[in-house]
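TA notes, week 10

Several of you asked for a full example with nothing omitted. So below is the full record: structure tokens for the whole chain, then the designed sequence directly under it. When grading your own attempts, check the secondary structure regions first.
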């Protein structure tokens, strides 16, 4: 399981771990979690729009200052996989290239494109586990 430090690297210092994170997700993450991910260069605006939440919705969420529980859960799922990919490849740039390149082990899809669903994220996570353990991907 990924350590909370990996989430903090991507989302900022205020990310708790364990059940505290569950509570925070249920309450809705502050909108600055999105800003931190984008400002850190982890996701582009287009990728965020496609995977986490549409730009119009983001604009509306900025007015309230918080994401919904569902949006928060989706963001944490994506961030968890971004961190796991960086950890697996040991280099953020290699991880970024791998995430955006079509992969035959994922039906020709770029791994990043699959992170919009839980099943897609699981497929990416399983593939990363195989890569980390030296099993042919």
């Amino acid at each position: 399981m990924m350590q909370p430090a990996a989430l903090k690297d991507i989302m900022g210092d205020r990310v708790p771990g364990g059940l505290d994170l569950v509570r925070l997700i249920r309450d809705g993450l502050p909108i600055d979690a999105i800003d931190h991910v984008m400002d850190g260069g982890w996701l582009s605006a287009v990728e965020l729009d496609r995977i986490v939440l549409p730009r119009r919705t983001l604009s509306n969420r900025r007015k309230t200052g918080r994401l919904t529980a569902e949006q928060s859960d989706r963001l944490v799922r994506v961030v968890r996989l971004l961190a796991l990919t960086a950890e697996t490849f040991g280099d953020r740039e290699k991880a970024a290239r791998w995430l955006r390149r079509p992969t035959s082990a994922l039906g020709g899809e770029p791994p990043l494109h699959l992170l919009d669903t839980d099943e897609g994220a699981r497929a990416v996570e399983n593939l990363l586990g195989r890569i980390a353990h030296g099993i042919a991907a």
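The first helix runs from residue 4 to 11. Use that as a sanity check on your answer.
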